[in-house]
Design goal:
The chain is α+β, with helices and mostly antiparallel strands. The chain has two helices and four strands; from the N terminus they run αβββαβ. Helix content is about 35%, strand content about 10%.
Protein backbone atom coordinates (compact mmCIF):
# COMPACT_ATOMS: atom_id res chain seq x y z
CA UNK A 1 0.00 0.00 0.00
CA UNK A 2 2.90 2.36 0.70
CA UNK A 3 4.27 2.02 -2.84
CA UNK A 4 0.95 2.00 -4.72
CA UNK A 5 0.98 -1.81 -4.96
CA UNK A 6 3.70 -1.74 -7.63
CA UNK A 7 4.76 -5.24 -6.58
CA UNK A 8 1.28 -6.46 -7.51
CA UNK A 9 0.97 -4.63 -10.87
CA UNK A 10 -1.23 -1.99 -9.24
CA UNK A 11 -3.75 -4.52 -7.92
CA UNK A 12 -5.02 -3.36 -4.54
CA UNK A 13 -4.88 -6.21 -2.04
CA UNK A 14 -6.24 -6.44 1.46
CA UNK A 15 -3.62 -6.97 4.18
CA UNK A 16 -4.80 -10.54 4.79
CA UNK A 17 -4.21 -11.29 1.10
CA UNK A 18 -0.60 -10.12 1.33
CA UNK A 19 0.24 -12.20 4.43
CA UNK A 20 0.69 -15.47 2.46
CA UNK A 21 3.27 -13.70 0.27
CA UNK A 22 5.05 -12.59 3.43
CA UNK A 23 5.06 -16.17 4.75
CA UNK A 24 6.43 -17.55 1.47
CA UNK A 25 9.25 -15.00 1.42
CA UNK A 26 10.09 -15.54 5.08
CA UNK A 27 10.25 -19.31 4.55
CA UNK A 28 12.57 -18.81 1.58
CA UNK A 29 14.86 -16.61 3.67
CA UNK A 30 14.77 -18.88 6.74
CA UNK A 31 15.54 -21.95 4.65
CA UNK A 32 18.47 -20.15 3.01
CA UNK A 33 19.84 -19.32 6.46
CA UNK A 34 19.39 -22.91 7.59
CA UNK A 35 21.07 -24.22 4.42
CA UNK A 36 24.19 -22.38 5.57
CA UNK A 37 23.78 -23.13 9.27
CA UNK A 38 21.06 -25.61 10.31
CA UNK A 39 21.65 -24.77 13.98
CA UNK A 40 20.91 -21.06 13.52
CA UNK A 41 17.89 -19.88 15.49
CA UNK A 42 15.83 -17.38 13.51
CA UNK A 43 13.57 -14.86 15.25
CA UNK A 44 10.78 -13.29 13.21
CA UNK A 45 9.38 -10.14 14.74
CA UNK A 46 5.66 -9.38 14.55
CA UNK A 47 4.36 -6.48 12.51
CA UNK A 48 3.57 -3.56 14.75
CA UNK A 49 0.41 -1.50 14.41
CA UNK A 50 0.14 1.71 12.46
CA UNK A 51 1.15 4.92 14.18
CA UNK A 52 -0.25 8.41 14.21
CA UNK A 53 2.66 10.52 15.44
CA UNK A 54 3.58 8.74 18.70
CA UNK A 55 0.29 6.89 19.24
CA UNK A 56 -1.00 3.50 18.11
CA UNK A 57 -3.81 3.72 15.54
CA UNK A 58 -6.29 1.57 17.44
CA UNK A 59 -8.41 0.93 14.34
CA UNK A 60 -5.55 -1.15 12.89
CA UNK A 61 -5.10 -3.47 15.88
CA UNK A 62 -7.47 -6.21 14.67
CA UNK A 63 -5.99 -6.19 11.16
CA UNK A 64 -2.42 -6.33 12.46
CA UNK A 65 -3.33 -9.13 14.87
CA UNK A 66 -4.86 -11.13 12.00
CA UNK A 67 -1.77 -10.65 9.83
CA UNK A 68 0.51 -11.65 12.69
CA UNK A 69 -1.58 -14.74 13.37
CA UNK A 70 -1.30 -15.80 9.71
CA UNK A 71 2.46 -15.31 9.69
CA UNK A 72 2.93 -17.07 13.02
CA UNK A 73 0.90 -20.04 11.83
CA UNK A 74 2.77 -20.14 8.54
CA UNK A 75 6.10 -20.42 10.37
CA UNK A 76 4.96 -22.79 13.13
CA UNK A 77 6.35 -25.98 11.59
CA UNK A 78 9.79 -24.54 10.75
CA UNK A 79 12.59 -25.81 12.99
CA UNK A 80 14.71 -23.31 14.92
CA UNK A 81 12.29 -20.46 14.30
CA UNK A 82 10.39 -18.36 16.83
CA UNK A 83 7.77 -15.71 16.18
CA UNK A 84 8.29 -12.73 18.48
CA UNK A 85 4.91 -11.20 19.22
CA UNK A 86 4.25 -8.16 21.39
CA UNK A 87 1.65 -5.50 22.16
CA UNK A 88 1.97 -1.74 22.07
CA UNK A 89 -0.36 0.05 24.46
CA UNK A 90 -3.04 2.25 22.90
CA UNK A 91 -3.29 5.78 24.30
CA UNK A 92 0.39 5.91 25.28
CA UNK A 93 3.38 7.47 23.51
CA UNK A 94 4.68 4.27 21.91
CA UNK A 95 6.32 5.47 18.69
CA UNK A 96 9.18 7.76 17.80
CA UNK A 97 8.20 10.81 15.81
CA UNK A 98 11.57 10.97 14.01
CA UNK A 99 11.85 8.57 12.28
CA UNK A 100 8.08 8.01 12.22
CA UNK A 101 6.48 4.61 12.71
CA UNK A 102 9.23 3.06 14.80
CA UNK A 103 8.50 1.94 18.38
CA UNK A 104 10.16 4.16 20.93
CA UNK A 105 12.46 1.63 22.57
CA UNK A 106 14.76 4.36 23.87
CA UNK A 107 12.09 5.99 26.02
CA UNK A 108 12.52 9.51 24.65
Amino acid sequence: QYCDYKCYNGTVLEPAEIAPVTVANLLRLIRAVHAENPAAFVLVMALYPDASRSLVVEETLDTIAAINAQVKEGLRAEPNVAFVDFDLAPGQDMFQVKPPGHPNCRGD
